[in-house]
Specification:
2 strands; elongated; mainly alpha; two-stranded antiparallel ribbon; 4 helices
Length: 103
């Protein structure tokens, strides 16, 4: 079974979509009116669908910690983590040995 707040939010989004696309609420948009020349019912369906897709994208693309990963001190205080140190230069792979220092 999935655990965590992310899974609960996805289930809540699914339930909200189920309610929005069910009869009682869809009946609110069943009118003979137009919005910029587009009938209100198809426009409302498209807008509800767009809101659900945007909510899904926001929930899935959001960075979050998994339940089994501890939060670092920087994340706990809300600070940005510092940049990693520059990597050391690679060891010379030249077949010629370096010349001895001159005196």
């Amino acid at each position: 079974m999935h655990k965590g707040l992310g899974s609960q939010r996805l289930v809540a989004l699914f339930a909200g979509g189920w309610v929005l696309f069910n009869f009682p609420l869809l009946g609110l948009w069943d009118r003979d009116a137009t919005l910029w020349g587009i009938p209100v019912f198809p426009a409302a369906l498209f807008m509800l669908w767009l809101v659900l897709i945007a909510g899904l994208a926001w929930l899935v693309d959001r960075p979050s910690l998994r339940d089994d990963e501890p939060a670092s001190a920087a994340e706990a205080t809300g600070q940005r983590p510092s940049a990693p140190a520059a990597p050391a230069p690679p060891a010379s792979s030249s077949p010629i040995p370096p010349s001895p220092p001159r005196a």
